[in-house]
Amino acid sequence: MDALNLPPFDYKVTKSGANYLIFDILRRKNVVLTPEEWVRQHFVHFLINTLGYPKSLISIERGTSYNKLQKRTDLCIYDTQGQAHLLVECKAAHVPITQEVVKQVSVYNQTLRARYVVITNGLQHYCWQVDFETRKYEPLTEVPAYVNK
Fold first, then answer.
1. Which string of b and e fits 83-115 if b means at least 16 CB within 10 Å?
2. Cβ contact 51:42 at 8 Å
3. In the chain, pLDDT over 90 holds for what percent of residues?
4. What is the percent of the chain with per-residue pLDDT over 70, rounded to a whole number?
5. Whole-angstrom Cα distance, residue 13 to residue 96?
6. Which range of residues forms the domain containing residue 76?
7. Which of 35, 48, 92, 134 to pair with 125, CA 20 to 30 A apart?
8. Residue 73 domain-assigned?
9. What pLDDT is attached to residue 69?
10. What are phi and psi of 41, to 5 degrees?
């Protein structure tokens, strides 16, 4: 797997048949290790170990619907009241962050209404603070750390 622009973590990879599996600490099971999953697992550990987000507030691949279409969010971090706080879209390291990717996560966020949106391919990370009243996305220089409210 590619070296990423995220802190390393102590991961556990095993092989099952033709697939490599990585242990997911949130789902508490091994999942197929794809290039996107490699980025997602690194970002999960970054959120927990560096930014202080509690595991209990992080959801992986949760289903949501938008205009009657079923969508899956890569990561959604909730506040202690159960409201979406931070939405993260992960792409494989070889996938560029394009306007189409920004549009994809913006569409997801129309339903979730997270205050912050992050897009990462493990090498580049983009974060915005969302103002739903003015419909503006303000770019931030870093992903906000967890603040218990």
1. ebbbbbbbbbbeeebeeebbeebbebbeebebb
2. no
3. 75
4. 91
5. 26
6. 13-140
7. 134
8. yes
9. 55
10. -65, -40
Whether 148 is covered by a domain: the verdict is no
CATH number at residue 41: 3.40.1350
Number of domains in the chain: 1
Q: Is residue 2 part of a domain?
A: no
Examine residue 108 and state whether it is found in any structural domain, yes or no: yes
122 burial level (CB within 10 Å; 0-12, 13-18, 19+):
buried
Look at residue 62 in the predicted model and tell me its pLDDT. 62
Q: How confident is the model at residue 64 (pLDDT cuts 50, 70, 90)?
A: low
pTM for the model stands at 0.90
Cα–Cα distance, 109 to 114 (Å, whole number): 6
Smallest CA-to-CA distance from 51 within 59, 39, 43 is with 43
Please name every residue paired with 23 in a beta bridge, in sequence order, or none if there are none.
Answer: 30
When pLDDT is cut at 50, 70 and 90, the band that residue 119 belongs to is: very high
**Which string of DSSP letters, residue by residue, matches 42-95?**
HHHHIIIIIT---GGGEEEEEEEEETTEEEEEEEEEE-TTS-EEEEEEE--TTS
List the one residue out of 82, 52, 75, 80 whose CA is nearest residue 146: 52
